[in-house]
User: Which sequence fits this backbone?
């Protein structure tokens, strides 16, 4: 439940506003002046502040200034309600960090729309901050993995870029793109369980070593399935080596049985592997790698996704 701190010295307007907001499901903490509201702020920890300007003891400007000086109050949305309609009042409110300014008398719908807009903006900002924090942790982990496998330096960053391009052109939703980014960076996380003697073996692998290498998909899935904010990325980790014709691993899924996340990442992963220098082959030219993907569409790759991926990369080559 969202918590709103309301400062208003007019008893009738304060109670009316509180009632209106509570009907909409908000929890409202109301105070008759700015000083009491400022003192209550730390214990209330509101998601939004609504304040009159002209109040005894501490006016709305003083309340806003006091809130913004608190570290926990720097990002809390602040909405002014006031009968003062002079341009200077609005400008001063903006300079102090007010997020919106509604003039009295106001319509209930006007207030509710402003409240919802400010709370939604804060929700998006918090999601972005959380995503950035998770992304930094994931990047650190991805770099640790790559440090163990010196054959694939820079691989996950390039795969992330190719995968995001494809996801965006396929019109995946923004929340899906966030998970895609996590999945691309973490798709080889299971390699952390592979012995370095196998991971960095300069020659060909034995059949037993191939099985060990292939186990990185299931090992990676086990690693992230218990982490709440990474669990949605599991299809990328588990399924990026599945093939359209069912000859992939670990589950030998076929066609659209393969999660779309695995089908998408397979294209980005293989394309980067083909175009990068490895101990066992020199990197292909982009046009040759795209020809190979075109030939393998419908056997290794989802044919529709492959067509889009090829078009994206060809357009970049033609720029």
Assistant:
């Amino acid at each position: 439940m969202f918590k709103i701190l309301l400062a208003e010295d007019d008893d009738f307007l304060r109670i009316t506003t509180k009632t209106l907001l509570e009907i909409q499901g908000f929890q409202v903490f109301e105070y008759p002046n700015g000083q009491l509201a400022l003192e209550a702020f730390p214990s209330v920890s509101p998601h939004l502040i609504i304040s009159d300007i002209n109040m005894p003891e501490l006016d709305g400007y003083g309340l806003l200034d006091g809130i913004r000086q608190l570290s926990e109050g720097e990002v809390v949305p602040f909405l002014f309600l006031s009968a003062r309609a002079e341009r200077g009042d609005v400008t001063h409110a903006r300079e102090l960090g007010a997020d919106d300014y509604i003039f009295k008398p106001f319509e209930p719908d006007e207030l509710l729309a402003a409240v919802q807009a400010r709370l939604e903006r804060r929700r998006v900002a918090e999601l972005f901050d959380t995503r950035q924090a998770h992304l930094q942790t994931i990047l650190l982990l991805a770099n640790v993995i790559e440090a163990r496998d010196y054959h694939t330096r820079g691989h996950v960053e390039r795969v992330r870029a190719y995968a995001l391009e494809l996801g965006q052109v396929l019109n995946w939703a923004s929340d899906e793109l966030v998970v895609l980014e996590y999945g691309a960076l973490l798709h080889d996380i299971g390699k952390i369980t592979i012995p370095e003697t196998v991971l960095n073996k300069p020659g060909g692998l034995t059949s037993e070593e191939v099985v060990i290498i292939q186990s990185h998909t299931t090992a990676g899935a086990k690693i992230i399935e218990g982490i709440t904010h990474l669990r949605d990325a599991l299809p990328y980790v588990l399924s990026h080596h599945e093939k359209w014709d069912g000859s992939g691993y670990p589950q030998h899924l076929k066609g659209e049985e393969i999660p779309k996340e695995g089908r998408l990442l397979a294209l980005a992963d293989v394309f980067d592997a083909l175009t990068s220098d490895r101990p066992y082959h020199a990197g292909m030219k982009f046009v040759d790698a795209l020809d190979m993907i075109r030939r393998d569409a419908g056997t290794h790759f989802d044919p529709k996704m492959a067509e889009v991926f090829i078009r994206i990369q060809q357009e970049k080559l033609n720029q």
Notes: The domain at 149-318 is CATH 1.10.3210.10 (Hypothetical protein af1432).
